[in-house]
Structure formats: structure tokens, C-alpha cells
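> call design_seq(struct)
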């Protein structure tokens, strides 16, 4: 996630006292009550899915192209990022609340947390605010972070450390023109010698530090699953140096590279092309707009150089972490994330790393908020975008993804990605983001576009997603579609027009294929990508397993169905489509909603005695108001959160030997809300009434 965007999004925030307005008639108050949930066992507690403590069998490793635990068994990670963008949040919670937040995450089935912005100054990050430089950790902050991590690992929650994200480098660090770099020094951090020295120093201070609560250094801690070198960072043709100093440094590196990789005649030709005379250095292009019009000799020289810079940086950092510090965890270079541009040059430069990673958001709130449903645009969905980055023989993780608030359709994202992530055989999905509150009694409302911690529908879906993803409830694709690129195709992809080639930047590639089959890259130095058929987009797009179907409906009223033995779902415009799956039929009044039913006892739904049902629609803050154009909020709103209660009936079918089905509403504390509701058996199946009491999750019990 790009820091400046999140900060811009926070400018929308208003205190609750500053908002006014009335909720629509269908919206009802429903808030999470985590403090109460912490006091007693919940019937929808997913902590049984976690294998505590984290790393008890040894370090996570790679087996047969996927993540495996220390005993060689396949392991998937279902996680959240930990950040603190919204008011009242703390990325590093106080010790008295650390166990509480760790238990909250475990209850929702989270088995991995990604610490992203630890390289900020206190009170948000680890870096001391008492010094002008950024080279000293605050001891109290580090001690609190150690305690929090110990509490997480104790419950079976693995750790993902991100080393360089938003560090505010300063002149006192010995960094030239530090104020011009921006947080994290994007691009520049991949080649400047001093910045790389500082990154190594930070890695040493963090990873070689001994956590007094676990007794282990982080380099020796099997609870640390992943270490990421640099968040969302790459350098390509057209990189604009932040100051003349860095332009001079990079140009000198380029000319030294040319001397080793181009003949004197080729260098002379480059001088001629770029208009320099004598011994003057060959200049680099200063802006991506130059690339499509550059002579091919210049274009490919710079493309190869930038690829060398990236690969050399990530290789050097990987060697430092493993050989110098002795890190035993798996290492990620960075994430493929900007899908309006080709990510293949960066992937080519990092394909040798342990794990490949991707990020994506459906309608990221960059400059304005949109409210279009992803189910209406399958070919540009997060599934399709994220699937472009996976490489054959390598674990693939998604360490940032979300459909940010507010969006009337954001209940769609978690069930869709959990299901298609399994079809694609991905190894991890980590949601952005969960923001621990400084005081758990903080009045609940959704405080910024990314925070899921107070979104009742997303948190209920997070728990059900853990059941589905960690349990492998959706079958992996039966066949894999591979793509092979020549080095020339990799570099040419950067100048393909985004309007016609995004997000795959592979001419002729049918974008519906990732919704049918597993998709992987087989080589970046192989034969050209083969030609694919140019058949029309099918409707529905059905996975080769037959378990997933995406009804495109000509770009409106889309619907995704999940029809697997242990999980069933209807996601999108349920009423308009009138579709059903094997065990689930819905007759609801909501225009858009998600209905998701999953076995909790590991048995097929036809035989299960206990299931989790989440039926959710949109979520709002009280007093939330949209502008006339529906492109942004004029009032952010405040507590309590409101939900669009799913109203109507569900029919559960083909429940073998059932003589009674009970529907138990669950409240915001994860506890039964009143008595269980008796359901009616008809010729069509067991009919479950939805609408009262107000909730979005239920325990379904089948008696046989």
C-alpha cells in the first residue's frame, strides 16, 4: 500500500461529533464487541484452526513449489496486516492489550500477521524520535513489539516482517538530499550505497535482536515465516531521480554497466543517439513517456540495466540476510502491485527469490471513491490481476489485498478471493488491514478506508475465510495454463498500452483463463508466449473443477457461486440472478449481498452437524453521507456501525438424515443472540428465515 494514498484517504476523517444525517431505513446498528468476546468461548471461535505455537515443528520452507511446515506438510497462511491509520489505533499495542488483540485475531482464524510500517518513528514505529537520525530503535517500543509478537506466536500466529516501507530517512543519517526522497525512498533505495547500508543496519537491529519473551533472536525464530526486503518498490526505464546527486550516481552506474555489457561500437552508437560527445557519460531517459519513442538500441540497453540494478540489489540483500545475519526464514523481494503497468521486469529480476508476492485492491481510494461491484467486472478483478504474478515452482503469496470502505459491494471480496485463491493454489492471503485500538473500549466504527477491525461483515467473513482457505475447501484447478516470455517480450511489455493490455500485458491472452484454470509463468528467458484462442468470454465463466462459476451478466448484476462439498456461496446480485447451488438456495430482498455457508466440523455439508453462515451486505457508519455524484463522502460518519441486514429466506437442501435444523444468530461478541430459531422443513428443503434479530452471522446446527 502506498503511504501517500493512505494519508490522503485519512483526510476524509471527521470526528463523530462533526457528522449528521440519517441512516437509510434498511440499515441497522450492529457493532463488534471484542472485549466481551474475549471473556468467554464463542461458538464461532476459529482458533482451533491454528497449530500453536507458531513454528513448533521448525521453520516454514518450500516443498514442491509451496509453503510447508517444518515436517514438510503443506501450510497456507491466512493473515492480516497490522497498521494504525485510523484514530485510536496502535500498530504496537500496549502490553496490557497485546494478549487481547492476539486472541482476537486467533478467534477469527488468522494465522499470520504482516508488520509493515515498523520503520516509522515512534509512537507509530520502532525508530526513536529522540534523535535526528533514523538509526536508533526506541527500547520501549521494541520491548512492546517483542511482547506482542510473543503473544501472537503463542497462539499459532506466524510473523511476516517488512523491512523497508515508509522510513523517513534524514540528513542526519548521512543521506544526501534526504527530504527529497520521500518516505521509503522509492526507487532510490535500490541503488544508493548509503541507503542500502542503512537498510542492512535496520535489518540487523531488528532481526539479530533477541526477544526476551521468546528467548530467541528473530533470525533463529521459526515463528517468523517471511521477511520482505522492500515494500512495493521497483526501478524501470524513465525513473526520475529525486535530485541531481542521485541522477549522477545512477548515470555513473549505467555507464560502468555499459562498459561491461556493450562493445565500444555500441556505446559510440548510444552517444550518437543521445547527442553526447567525447567522453561525456551516456544519459538515461528521464520520464516513462520517452520509452515508446526511443531507438531500440537505447531502449533495450536501459531495460537491461535497470533489470541488473534490481536483481543485484535484491540478491545482495538476500545474501546479507541469510549469509551475514544467518536468517532462516523465507525471503520475499517485493510485490508486483501496479497493474496498470507491466510487472514482468521486476518479476524477472526477483524470480530467484524464495517466494513471489503480489498486491491489489479493488477500487483503491486514490483520489476519489467509487462504488462499482467487482462481480460486474471479472476480467479486471483482483483474482485476475493477482494471478498474473505467480511463477511455476515458486510459492505465491498475496500480502496486501482489500476492497476498501466505503463500497456498497465490499462484502464480495473475501469469499471470492478465498475461493479463487484455492483454485489458483496460492500459499497465502493477507488482508489490508487490521488496526488494534489503543483502548479496546473504543467506540466501534470504520475509521479509515482500509481498517477491517471494526467492520462487522468483513470480520465475520475473515473467520469464515479462515475455515475455507486453511481447510482447502475449494479444489485446486485441474489444469495449469503457463506463459513463457523471451527477455525481449519482458522489456517490450513496459511500452504496451494499458488501455488494451492491462493487467496481463500479454497480447492475445484471454483474461477469463485465471477464472477457469491455474495460471503460472514458466520462464522469462524461454520461447515466446504461445498464442491463445480468441473465443468470446463465456457466461458463466466456470472453473475446470466445476466448483466456481462467475456469471458476467453483460457487466451488470454479476454473481459468483461456490459449490464445493464443504462450502457454498452466492456472492453479488443474488436476487436478480435467481441462481442456486447444491445445498443453498436464497430468496432475499437485498439487491446485493453475500451468502456463505461452510462446514465447521470438516465434513461435507450434506453430513455436517455444525456450520457457519455469514449473510452480509453493505456496512456504513452512522451519519455517513455521499456526495451527489456518489464518488466520495461528504461526511465520514461515526459510531455505531450499521449493516444492511439480509432479509428473506434460505433453503438448505440435501442434508442427509436431518430431523431438525437450528439457526442460532450470533451477536457482536461472538455469542448466541437469543434462542435458536426453529426452521421449517418443506419439500424443497429446510427453510431458514433471515431478518431478526439483526446480525450477519449464524451458527447452523443439524440434528440427525
Amino acid at each position: 500500500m502506498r503511504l501517500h494514498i493512505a494519508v490522503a484517504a485519512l483526510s476524509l476523517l471527521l470526528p463523530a461529533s462533526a457528522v449528521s444525517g440519517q441512516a437509510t431505513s434498511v440499515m441497522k446498528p450492529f457493532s463488534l464487541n471484542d472485549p466481551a468476546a474475549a471473556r468467554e468461548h464463542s461458538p464461532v471461535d476459529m482458533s482451533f484452526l491454528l497449530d500453536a505455537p507458531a513454528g513448533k515443528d521448525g521453520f516454514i520452507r518450500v516443498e514442491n513449489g509451496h509453503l510447508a511446515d517444518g515436517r514438510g506438510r503443506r501450510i497456507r497462511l491466512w493473515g492480516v496486516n497490522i497498521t494504525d491509520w485510523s484514530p485510536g489505533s496502535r500498530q504496537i499495542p500496549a502490553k496490557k492489550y497485546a494478549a487481547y488483540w492476539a486472541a482476537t485475531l486467533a478467534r477469527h482464524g488468522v494465522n499470520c500477521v504482516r508488520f509493515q510500517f515498523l520503520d516509522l518513528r515512534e509512537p507509530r514505529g520502532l525508530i526513536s524520535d529522540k534523535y535526528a537520525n533514523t538509526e536508533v530503535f526506541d527500547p520501549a517500543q521494541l520491548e512492546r513489539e517483542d511482547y506482542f509478537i510473543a503473544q501472537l506466536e503463542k497462539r499459532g500466529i506466524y510473523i511476516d516482517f517488512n523491512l523497508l516501507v515508509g522510513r523517513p530517512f534524514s540528513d542526519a543519517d548521512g543521506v544526501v538530499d534526504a527530504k527529497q526522497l520521500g518516505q521509503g525512498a522509492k526507487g532510490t533505495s535500490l541503488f544508493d550505497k548509503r541507503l542500502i547500508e542503512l537498510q542492512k543496519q535496520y535489518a540487523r537491529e531488528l532481526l539479530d535482536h533477541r526477544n526476551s519473551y521468546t528467548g530467541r533472536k528473530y533470525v533463529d525464530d521459526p515463528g517468523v515465516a517471511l521477511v520482505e526486503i522492500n515494500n512495493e518498490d521497483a526501478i524501470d526505464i524513465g525513473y526520475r531521480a529525486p535530485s541531481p546527486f542521485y541522477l549522477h550516481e545512477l548515470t555513473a552506474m549505467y555507464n560502468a554497466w555499459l562498459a561491461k555489457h556493450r562493445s565500444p561500437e555500441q556505446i559510440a552508437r548510444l552517444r550518437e543517439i543521445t547527442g553526447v560527445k567525447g567522453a561525456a557519460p551516456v544519459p538515461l531517459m528521464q520520464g516513462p513517456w520517452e520509452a515508446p519513442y526511443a531507438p531500440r538500441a537505447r531502449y533495450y540497453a536501459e531495460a537491461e540495466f535497470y533489470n541488473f540494478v534490481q536483481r543485484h540489489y535484491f540478491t545482495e540483500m538476500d545474501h546479507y540476510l541469510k549469509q551475514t545475519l544467518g536468517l532462516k526464514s523465507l525471503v520475499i523481494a517485493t510485490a508486483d502491485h501496479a497493474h496498470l503497468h507491466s510487472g514482468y521486469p521486476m518479476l524477472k529480476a526477483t524470480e530467484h527469490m524464495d517466494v513471489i508476492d503480489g498486491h491489489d485492491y479493488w477500487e483503491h481510494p486514490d483520489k476519489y471513491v467509487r462504488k462499482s461491484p467487482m462481480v460486474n467486472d471479472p476480467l479486471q478483478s483482483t483474482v485476475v490481476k493477482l494471478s498474473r504474478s505467480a511463477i511455476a515452482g515458486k510459492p505465491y503469496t498475496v500480502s496486501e489485498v482489500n476492497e476498501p470502505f466505503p463500497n456498497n459491494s465490499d462484502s464480495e471480496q473475501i469469499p471470492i478471493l478465498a475461493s479463487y485463491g484455492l483454485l489458483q493454489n496460492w500459499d497465502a492471503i493477507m488482508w489490508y488491514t487490521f488496526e488494534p485500538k489503543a483502548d479496546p473500549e473504543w467506540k466501534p466504527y470504520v475509521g479509515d478506508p482500509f481498517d477491517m477491525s471494526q467492520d462487522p461483515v468483513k470480520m465475520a467473513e475473515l473467520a469464515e475465510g479462515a475455515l475455507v482457505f486453511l481447510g482447502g475447501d475449494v479444489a485446486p484447478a485441474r489444469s495449469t495454463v503457463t506463459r513463457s516470455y523471451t527477455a525481449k517480450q519482458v522489456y517490450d511489455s513496459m511500452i504496451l498500452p494499458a488501455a488494451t493490455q492491462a493487467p496481463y500485458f500479454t497480447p492475445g491472452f484471454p483474461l477469463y483463463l485465471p477464472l477457469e484454470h491455474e495460471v503460472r509463468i514458466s520462464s522469462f528467458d524461454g520461447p515466446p508466449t504461445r498464442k491463445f484462442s480468441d473465443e468470446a468470454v463465456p457466461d458463466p465463466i466456470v472453473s475446470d473443477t466445476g466448483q466456481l462459476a462467475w456469471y458476467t451478466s453483460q457487466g451488470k448484476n454479476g454473481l459468483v457461486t461456490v459449490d464445493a462439498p464443504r462450502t457454498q456461496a452466492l456472492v453479488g446480485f443474488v436476487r436478480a440472478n435467481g441462481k442456486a447451488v447444491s445445498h443453498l438456495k436464497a430468496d432475499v430482498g437485498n439487491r446485493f449481498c453475500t451468502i456463505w455457508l461452510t462446514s465447521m466440523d470438516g465434513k461435507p455439508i450434506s453430513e455436517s452437524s455444525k456450520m457457519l453462515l455469514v449473510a452480509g451486505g453493505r456496512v456504513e457508519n452512522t451519519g455517513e453521507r455521499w456526495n451527489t455524484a456518489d464518488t466520495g463522502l461528504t461526511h465520514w460518519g461515526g459510531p455505531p456501525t450499521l449493516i444492511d441486514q439480509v432479509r428473506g429466506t434460505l433453503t438448505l437442501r440435501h442434508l442427509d438424515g436431518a430431523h431438525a435444523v437450528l439457526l442460532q444468530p450470533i451477536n457482536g461478541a461472538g455469542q448466541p443472540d437469543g434462542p435458536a430459531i426453529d426452521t421449517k422443513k418443506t419439500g424443497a428443503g429446510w427453510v431458514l428465515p433471515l431478518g431478526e434479530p439483526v446480525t450477519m452471522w449464524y451458527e447452523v446446527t443439524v440434528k440427525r
